[in-house]
Structure formats: C-alpha cells, structure tokens
Write a structure and sequence with these properties.
single chain, mainly alpha, about 80% helix
Amino acid sequence: MKYAKSDNVIVINIIVVSSFLVFYLGEVTFQASGFLALTVLGLKLSKLEHTIISHETYLSLKTFLQYMEFVCETIIFLSVGLFVGDEFTHKQITIRDIINLVIFFILMIATRYISIGLFYPALKRLGYGINLKQYTLLSYSALRGSHGLLLALAIGHSSSAFSEKTRELIMFFMGGISILSLTFQGTTITKLVN
C-alpha cells in the first residue's frame, strides 16, 4: 500500500478487496460478526489514511465509497419497496395494521424525545454541549432508513425464526416507518432548522 499511495485505482481496489476479505474471514473462518470485523478494519484505516494515502487518492476513495453507499441504499430501499408493495397487492396488510403503523410512528418520535430528554442535562454540560434547538433537531430527525430496512429484510427472509405473518408485519412496519420518516420528517426538517 505504501508504494501505491498515489494510484487511485490500486488503492480503491485494495480497500474493496480487503473489506470483502475481512468480512469473509470474520463470518466464515472465525465464526464471528463480519460487520464487527469491518468496523475494526475501518477504525484501523482511519488512523492510517493520511499517512499511507495521498490527498488526491483520499478524495477519489471518498467519492467512490459515497457512490457505493448510495448504490447499496438504493438497492435496499428498492427491495423493501418491492416486498411491501407485494404484500399490499396480496391484501395481507389490513387497515388495522396501517393504524398501528401511524401509532407506532408517533410513539417512536415521542420515545426519542423522552430518551434524549433524559440525558439532556448531561449532554448540555459534557462534550460539545447542546442547546434546546439542537435537542429538538436531534430528537426530531434521528436515524432511520437503510440500517433498519436491512435488518427487516434479513428477518423477512429468515424461514424459521418467525411466523410468516410476523415477518410480513416486521417488513411492513419498518418500510412504513421509513416512508413516514422520509415523507414527514424529511420534508419538514428545514422549517424546523430555520
């Protein structure tokens, strides 16, 4: 890697191949979590990135990884959309499930406000410190999307862990929460920021 620090293609290929290799070794060879192995690799590379990779190559790598993230998230959202759409066409999701989804969405937002509010005094004094506006933004915007959808996809395609109806509902609720979050919170967050 030291000798190829200025060659964009070689560095990107080394990073991609080493990521797949570490994931494979973690999952198959050591029977551990491939995601945790990738996290360790990422932490190690973040310490070395400025010493073994030139600035130009770093910018190319960053652009490539952002593109790959976009492609993976698009595939995840498309897969969940197709799966949830299929459930709607087969009428296995009822009106009661939709009402429960809306209630769950409201409770999820309230839970985020409460859980972050419990730590607000500590967050206000420690680290960077947050004010009331930042607390509101943090509670309102919170993480949602591809990670939860990926877990829902994994559960949705597991055959023995859950009944078919439970798997369908998990996919529906996670997909629905994502859609509601992106629709309502995604479109109103700029008004809240201003």
